[in-house]
């Protein structure tokens, strides 16, 4: 119960208090217990080397430790193949869990089977924030921080100020969680939440599915945030229960009297399809204003929008149609589970018939290592979270970001399209 | 006292510009990887930078991925401190963990090529070229301790654990 005179706690303060075993308030530096530490194949080898250099032999007994081979999987060249072998060997030696080629993107698998509300999760990948959609304090860090957390089972954190984002209303047809987060980043800027927590609340949260929350939390880091947090509620419980881990659930919400640095109100009903233009995520515009921009490649997938609901939206739009002959549609399901479910639901057939190429579950072309590197002067519209210059393997290419609906509509037209024409 | 030349960059320099993802295949071959430091932000940087020089940037330096290879290749290129108006969170931690100072200050008055003298203990930067003086803001004490030990691994070797 909240006492009248005590100042309530934000979600960030609540979780970090519980994990550090004390009263964690904004600005405090705490040492907190980590539940899960994971690495991926492009940051993992350095993490392992730092782990070994620090003299650790095994991960701390208190944590779950997972190595994901997802960023360059299957490996595109011998160097990355050697990195994969190195991580597989480390898994064998230490008993870390290995998620191998074809299992999917780390953040999707963490959401599907590992993250629990209230956990402190540390991944050596910036989009670790994704699990904030389930109410986990999930934070991206570098290899040395990851190595030390792996060995000690804890890390240090500064308790962040929180920005409260109060959501009301419902999305209009053709408008999705991706449009909300692109809009928010455009509004506050790519450093609008640096060092801070973005906490989502308001009436509309209960109407948002867990996959929608994951999409929003995933991109919190694109505003510089340390974490993007949703409360854990009945929707969270149902999601966990459907995965057979209902016992991982605990309800979690901020206190009413918590102190926020700033409050931002957004009425979902007022949003429209949004796009981030090259070369920064905060360079946003409504999709309708970019009509006519020719696009050579459309990507649907990644840890932001490679889930079943995303493929369903895209399949519905392209059903019975063919993609524009000047535009390639590349689809990478976020995980094996997503791919299987999409096969069963018929979405994969629909996408294939529309002209799509289906990649194995994983990061796909998101970071320019393989499977859809862009040519000089080409433009891509992707459902990913980042459009920095060079991101997709070519500094002379242009990347736009949008929702799966915007992506599917764009693939049909060969130029950026407003998906509301199709839904 | 650190002395060296300023290499000036703009704002929002991402980790994809500092060390592009397309070189991920070199991440277990650090000497080769370091030859591409800052390649998509300043293609000639790596051939001109000398041991002891500084990167001077605008705001939100190092935004983007968690790849620690970003501060690592900067350090391997010879850079001894990064000066910026602001720095992305993960990059900040990574740089300090590698013992590479990140100094937050108003970098507008520093021009490319200026000669700088930095006193880390006093918290001052002297621009020898235009005879101006700057101060940089304090960083959390735990980061200062990590930096003073030369990075997180030497810190851990000394203390065996985090200390508050
Ligand atoms: S899908 Fe893209 S953003 Fe997500 S983890 Fe993979 S490379 Fe990173």
Question: What can you tell me about this protein's structure?
Answer:
- The complex is a heterodimer of chains A (423) and B (164).
- By secondary structure, chain A is α/β, with parallel strands linked by helices.
- Chain A has three domains: 11-158, 2-Layer Sandwich (Aconitase, domain 3); 161-270, Aconitase, Domain 2 (3-Layer(aba) Sandwich); 274-421, Aconitase, domain 3 (2-Layer Sandwich), CATH 3.30.499.10.
- Chain A contains 13 helices and 18 strands.
- Chain A has helices spanning 11-20, 44-53, 78-94, 106-113, 143-152, 177-188, 210-218, 234-242, 302-305, 308-318, 336-345, 347-353, 404-413; strands at 29-33, 36-40, 64-68, 97-99, 120-123, 137-140, 154-158, 162-168, 197-201, 227-229, 262-267, 274-276, 284-286, 297-301, 328-332, 357-358, 379-382, 398-401.
- In chain A, strand 2, helix 2 (44-53) and strand 3 (64-68) form a beta-alpha-beta unit.
- Chain A is globular.
- Chain A starts with 10 loop residues before the first helix and ends in a 10-residue tail after the last helix.
- Chain B has 164 residues and is α/β, with parallel strands linked by helices.
- Helix content of chain B is 28%, strand content 19%.
- Chain B has helices spanning 15-18, 30-34, 45-48, 69-76, 89-97, 141-148, 152-159; strands spanning 2-8, 54-57, 81-84, 102-104, 115-119, 124-127, 132-135.
- Chain B has a seven-stranded mixed β-sheet.
- In chain B, helix 4 (69-76) links the parallel strand 2 (54-57) and strand 3 (81-84).
- The longest helix of chain B has 9 residues, at 89-97.
- At the A-B interface, helix 2, helix 3, helix 5 and strand 7 of A face helix 5 and helix 7 of B.
- Iron/sulfur cluster binds at residues 71, 105, 107, 125, 127, 302-303, 363, 366-367, 384-385 of chain A.
């Amino acid at each position: 119960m909240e006492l009248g005179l005590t100042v309530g706690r934000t979600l960030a303060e609540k979780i970090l208090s519980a994990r550090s075993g004390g009263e964690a308030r904004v600005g405090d530096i705490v040492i907190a217990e980590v539940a899960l530490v994971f690495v991926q194949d492009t940051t993992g080898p350095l993490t392992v080397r730092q782990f070994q250099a620090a003299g650790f032999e095994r991960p701390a007994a208190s944590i779950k430790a997972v190595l994901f081979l997802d960023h360059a999987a299957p490996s595109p060249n011998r160097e990355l193949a050697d990195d994969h072998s190195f991580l597989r060997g480390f898994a064998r030696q230490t008993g870390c869990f290995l998620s191998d080629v074809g299992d999917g993107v780390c953040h999707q698998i963490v959401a599907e089977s590992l993250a629990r509300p209230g956990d402190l999760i540390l991944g050596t990948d910036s989009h670790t924030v994704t699990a904030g959609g389930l109410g986990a304090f999930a934070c991206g860090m570098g290899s040395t921080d990851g190595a030390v957390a792996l060995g000690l089972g804890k890390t240090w954190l500064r308790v962040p100020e929180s920005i409260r984002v109060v959501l009301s209303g419902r999305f209009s047809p053709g408008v999705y969680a991706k449009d909300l987060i692109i809009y928010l980043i455009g509004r506050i800027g790519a450093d609008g939440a640096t060092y801070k927590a973005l906490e989502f609340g308001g009436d509309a949260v209960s109407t948002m599915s867990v996959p929608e929350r994951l999409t929003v939390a995933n991109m919190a880091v694109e505003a510089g945030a340390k974490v993007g947090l949703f409360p854990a509620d009945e929707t969270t419980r149902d999601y966990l229960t459907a995965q057979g881990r209902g016992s991982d659930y605990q309800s979690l919400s901020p206190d009413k009297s918590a102190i926020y640095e700033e409050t931002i109100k957004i009425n979902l009903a007022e949003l429209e399809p949004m796009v981030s233009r090259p070369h920064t995520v905060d360079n946003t515009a409504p999709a309708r204003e970019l009509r006519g921009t020719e696009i050579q490649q459309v990507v649907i997938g990644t840890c932001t929008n490679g889930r079943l609901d995303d493929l369903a939206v895209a399949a519905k739009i392209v059903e019975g149609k063919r993609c524009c002959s000047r535009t390639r549609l590349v689809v990478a399901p976020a995980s094996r589970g997503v791919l299987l479910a999409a096969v069963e639901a018929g979405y994969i057939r629909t996408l294939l018939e529309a002209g799509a190429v289906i990649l194995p579950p994983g990061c796909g072309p998101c970071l320019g290592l393989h499977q859809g590197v862009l040519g000089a002067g080409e433009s891509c519209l992707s459902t990913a979270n980042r459009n920095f210059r060079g991101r997709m393997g070519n500094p002379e290419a242009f990347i736009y970001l949008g929702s799966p609906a915007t992506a599917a509509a764009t693939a049909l037209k060969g130029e950026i399209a407003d998906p509301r024409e199709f839904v | 006292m650190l002395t060296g030349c300023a290499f000036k960059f703009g704002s929002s320099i991402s980790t994809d510009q500092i060390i592009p993802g397309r070189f991920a295949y070199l991440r277990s071959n650090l000497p080769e990887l370091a030859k591409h430091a800052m390649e998509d932000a300043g293609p000639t940087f790596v051939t001109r930078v000398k041991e002891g020089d500084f990167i001077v940037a605008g705001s939100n330096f190092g935004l983007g991925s968690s790849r620690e290879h970003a501060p690592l290749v900067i350090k391997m290129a010879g850079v001894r401190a990064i000066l910026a108006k602001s720095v992305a969170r993960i990059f900040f931690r990574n740089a300090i963990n590698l013992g590479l100072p990140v100094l937050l200050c108003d970098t507008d008055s520093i021009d490319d090529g200026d000669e700088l003298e930095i006193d880390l203990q006093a918290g001052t930067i002297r621009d020898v070229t235009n005879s101006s003086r700057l101060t940089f803001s304090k960083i959390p004490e735990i980061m200062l301790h990590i930096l003073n030990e030369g990075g997180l691994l030497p810190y851990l070797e000394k203390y065996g654990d985090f200390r508050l």
